[in-house]
Amino acid sequence: MDANGLLQIFVYCLLIVALAPFVGRYLATVFAGGRTPAAAILGPVERGIYRLCGIRAGLEQHWTGYAGSLLAFNMLGVLLLFALQRIQHILPLNPAGVPAVPADLAFNTAVSFVTNTDWQAYAGEATLSYLTQMAGLTVQNFVSAATGIAVAVALARAFARRSAGTVGNFYVDLTRAALYVLLPACMLGTLMLVWQGVPQNLQAYTLATTLEGGQQVIAQGPVASQMMIKHLGTNGGGFFGQNAAHPFENPTPLTNMVHMIAIFAIGAGLTNAFGRMVGDMRQGWALLAAMGVLFLAGVLAAYWAESQGNPALSALGIAGPVNLEGKEVRFGIATSVLFAVITTAASCGAVIAMHDSLMPLAGMVSLVNMMLGEIIVGGVGAGLYGMLLFVVLAVFIAGLMVGRTPEYLGKKVEAREVKLALVAVLALASGILGLAALATVLPAGLVSVQDAGPHGLSEILYAYASAAANNGSAFAGFGANTPYQNAMLGLGMLVGRFLVIVPVLAIAGALAAKKTVPASAGTLPTHGVLFVGLLVGVIVIVGGLTFFPAVALGPIAEHLLTGAALF
To answer: How far is the C-alpha of 297 from the C-alpha of 300, rounded, in Å?
Structure first.
């Protein structure tokens, strides 16, 4: 660890904290139906979308209607994206002549992008046409991110409302998230990326002659437009197989910083928007503080682990804490580690370093980030509603300690809400541990594992944690493109997305119907250091009890064996 690396981490955190109030104010205005600077242009477009789709914007939905609309919309997205991949070979905008995507891979990819996972078991430039990239993947990058934002906003409304039977209108929230939040930011960001050298064209791939006289195919295409939404919407799916390590996706230090800021911008801003919506800004800052404590602990631990170097290299007589294997050498170890922790904390999945090459403890940080449910800022929307699930558990535990009915923001947290929160937490754990367990014993699952021993187990755990947590990053040694893995990882993505969202919306419906209870002398303050510590403690304890045995057999065992020069 050096001063330069620590300074980069500090500057990044400072920029995110400074940006959160501005993003939060804008988000709160948008979802309250207020007037924004772009309203004069986008307002008629919004109303036109409602008329075209038959949406009654003033008609709100009960949580069951909200959840039903969300599920129907997303399942239709899966079917359309699957079909587009299967017939792309007969559709236009396919200059490379790529064939139809196999059915198992098309299913996995369709589920992946609809669930905001963007797991890719293929190289995009060699598998998908321009039309599939734009009309399929990029569209889902927008609407899957907007879906997560909509759920978070519905839950925030539930805490803010009193004796209400509705939580909003899914289609209105979806439209506003995509139209007023994601689209304008991505248009500006795309222009910036083009300025920095990211391709944005529909030309055929370029055939170049190398210095040795060989032929090289240089892929290009509509890259910049996909890059901005993949980071801002915490999608993570790259145009190229190398993802954000490819110089066409991430050509300069400026684009790298913009990518990292974009990954956290909306997630951090939503905590501020939550405070504004419930009428107490301190609540939003408390949530962001809890996220910040966990994030800093992870990034400093990972940076320390990578700075120690590899004992195996020392045994060969290579001195010094140098471990550049798998790193983005243009940006260095500190930035490579920072990007790895950001992307796994934020359910993004974009990478500039190969996580399979991280030292065991650094790889464990990325793995644990996902196992906790991507609540450390998290995916757009998913981080906020995931953190609020742990808030429900934290106030419940605090209530048990003092013998009072738990309360949060004046709403009594009763058995129904606690049970629903546990259902969501256990759904994620089942999607990770249950499916990973099958992959460790079935021959069809084991064939994908590259390495034996603890690292092989880490590969399996990482793949299913990435799927169920809707992250999308991977340990590079894991061979995911098999019929078994495509099916089971797709199942994990569906479980991790919708078996969490539905209980969250059920909690929203229950809370919206409750009356607000005035604070009393026995009410636990939920905006101070004590509550932040309690919340972080609950997250660590629940995560540890759930996942520590598996992590101990994977990255921790590998670390101990590496240190003993036995691995």
So the answer is: 6
